[in-house]
Amino acid sequence: PEHLLAEVVATAGLVLVIFALARRQQAAVIPWAVGAYIGAAYFFTSSSSFANPAITIGRMISDTFAGIAPASAPWFIAAQLVGALLAILLVRWLVPVERSIANP
Question: In angstroms, rounded to a whole number, what is the distance separating the alpha carbons of residues 87 and 36?
Answer without folding.
Answer: 18
